[in-house]
Amino acid sequence: MNSVLQVKHLSKSYGRTEAVDSLSLELAEHTIYGLLGRNGAGKTTLLNVITGGMFPDGGEVVVHGRPLRQGEVPTQVCYIREKNFYPSGARIRDVLQMASVFHPDWDSELASTLLGTFKLNPSKKMRQLSRGMESMVGNIIGLASRAPLTIFDEPVLGLDVLMREKFYRTLLEDYAEHPRTILLSTHLIDEIATVVEQVFIMENGGILMREEVEHIRERAHTVSGSTAALDAFTAGRRVIHGERYGNVGVAIVYGDLPDDKRREAQSRGLTIEGVPLQKFFAYLIEEGQADE
Amino acid sequence: MPIPFDENRPIFQQIADRIEDDILNDTYAEEDQIISTTQFSRMFQINPATVVKGFGLLVNEGIIYKKRGLGMYVSAGAKEKIMGKRRERFYSDLVVKLLEEAEKLGMSMEDVIDMIKREKRGQRT
Amino acid sequence: MNKMGVQLRVSMLRMRLAILLVIGAIVVSTIANYTVNAALQGDPQRDAQDVAAAVGELRDLTGDDSLQIEVPSEMENVNVSSANMLLLLLPVLAIVLPLQTFRTMMNFGDSRRRYFVGLLLIYAGAALVLALCNSLWWPFEQNIIREHSQTFNLIEIFGWDRLGTVGIFLYQAAFYFFVLTLFNLLFSRMKSPITWILWAVLIAAIPIGTSIASLRVHVADFFLALLFNDSLIAGMGLNLILSAVFIAGAWLFTRHRTF
């Protein structure tokens, strides 16, 4: 698979704070990725450096095979920021028209369909929009741009559940017909768990984990039972989180668990269940911090 | 509308299960065209690659097949195949567990069989 | 629409308020001047009689016959030329555009280089339009407005009227471009310490340049050459060379400007 974006040992600090710390990642073509992390984990800084808005202190960014030089902005990329900077006096219609100029693959038919889907009045001015509507204008631009690399930063901010669903559904629908690389940066993991194929979990300016969502689903387990049985089971395994109450305990364990091992554990009285992804990431990040 | 998926198992397996369920309960008869991967992806808000993987599982098992340019169809004998597969799983997942639990509760095999018979009779009347 | 069109559109949206304010200021000041002039235009003979009567009363009251009040033969009000007031747009434009359009254009996906070239084109256009407005207004002001009231006009003050019609236009355009690029330099990268040093130097230069006698001569020479130059070519050349320096500086700022 061709690489769309390569980030090599990227660092960026603000004064003494390392916002991005020797981070490397690679995005392949025709894949939807999730970039997950808490607020302040360095996601937006990373995205700003990738798209040429900020300059790294060290490391390299290669977009579509071309190293990004200082002051350059990559082409064939559409970056929808969390906070938009469209002129507040411009109408939605005008903003879409202006955005179309910068994206050679722009589909204006899709843009006008989406205005209907997301119930936006194209004659409204940007300053009249709610936070959610503002997000949607950005999302329409991101989708209609059909850019080979499209990046959304917190795309569902301010949107109600129905609109979030509509957005993800539209994204998948258009992606199925026009495959491209999409990076969704968010702190809301459960919502994108089925939408993305791979996730990068970011904490303290670094990538804590890069994994296929399906693998996480297979490998993350909540194991509970007597402490004795639990200790025997967790020995040699990666325990992300553990709690004990007297002689019972519960542990979140990460790793492959073949059927025979599972049956063996169950025969010892342990209960093995899945872990909601949001919870898994929260514990994983907590573990990452404890290691600091 | 997104439906909750089991946290513990990969989604592509759950997708395959769902299609199998639809074949077992006759939502799809043999040689029927089934929902396309795009439709499925859209309806349940799942990454198309994951859906393709789930459908691929069924294609490999000969439960569905692809007609070029037309879509996915249920194979002849698909229902039989699924039933055979599910019977094995019924034994390993349910029967074994049932007996383990019965043992914990100090119930004999006869007690369990009696219980099953009683339940079946209750349903008939 | 192309990228330049988008930049023009964004610039207009950002400048709309400032343009309305400047035009509003011109209208208000024109009306105010007209009113003041009308009020000052009394009947000089009756005024003189009134003053004489008042002085007579004062003499009676004080018993001082030598008391007298001088009345100026003509009272007048001097206004700044309306077309010159449009020049307020020069600093406003070169402050608002770098501060308010850089992020918008970057957000759309524009490159720094194209944005900067577009910005210069807008400045060049603005300098030409304002120079044209003032050049066309100038004969009208000389022949019609001056019948009614006295006005200040840069064209006269800097002696550009000696350079002929084309000279008036060209000198203005070059000078306006100089002003635009200067302000643009000062507002291109507010986050950089180099900008702060530039500001400090500029603010310090005025008192230092005027207070030290030996420097004062050079400062005066510089402004004479820049603004009051007898040679159109030399005057324009100096303005444009300095503009080029400011542009080079502003480009370095913009190239390293972060979002």
Describe it:
In chain A, 35% of the residues lie in helices and 31% in strands. Chain A has helices spanning 43-50, 92-101, 108-117, 131-145, 161-177, 189-192, 213-219, 227-234, 259-267, 277-291, and strands at residues 3-14, 17-28, 32-36, 58-63, 66-67, 77-80, 149-153, 181-186, 198-203, 206-212, 220-226, 238-245, 248-254, 271-273. In chain A, helix 2 (92-101) packs parallel to helix 4 (131-145) and helix 3 (108-117) runs antiparallel to helix 4 (131-145). Chain B is mainly alpha-helical. Chain B is built from 5 helices and 2 strands. Chain B has a two-stranded antiparallel sheet. The N and C termini of chain B lie far apart (38 Å). Chain C has a domain at 81-255. Chain C contains 11 helices and 2 strands; from the N terminus they run H-H-E-H-H-H-H-E-H-H-H-H-H. Chain C has a two-stranded parallel ribbon. Chain C is elongated, with a radius of gyration of 25 Å. Chains in contact: A-B, A-C. Chain A binds chain B through residues 31-32, 165, 168-169, 172-173, 175-177, 194-197, 213-215, 217-218, 221, 267, 272-277, and chain B through 1-2, 5-12, 37-38, 41-42, 44-50, 53, 100.
Helix content of chain C: over 70%
Separate helix tally of chain C: 11
Tell me the radius of gyration of chain A.
22 Å
Beta-strand content of chain A: 25-35%
Give the count of helical stretches of chain A: 10
Number of DSSP strands of chain A?
Answer: 14
Largest sheet, spatial ordering of strands of chain C: 1-2
Helix coverage percent of chain A: 25-40%
Gyration radius of chain C, to the nearest Å?
25 Å
Order of helices and strands of chain C: HHEHHHHEHHHHH
The geometry of chain A reads as globular
What is the end-to-end distance of chain C? 25 Å
Q: State the distance separating the first and last CA atoms of chain A.
A: 35 Å
Q: What summary fits the major beta sheet of chain A?
A: 6 strands, mixed
Quaternary state of this entry equals heterotrimer
Strand percentage of chain C: under 5%
- Pair with the biggest interface: A-B, 27 and 23 residues
List keywords for this structure.
heterotrimer; A: 292 residues; alpha/beta; 6-stranded mixed sheet; 4-stranded antiparallel sheet; 10 helices; 35% helix; 31% strand; B: 125 residues; mainly alpha; two-stranded antiparallel ribbon; 5 helices
Task: Sum this structure up briefly.
The complex is a heterotrimer of chains A (292), B (125) and C (259). By secondary structure, chain A is of the alpha/beta class.
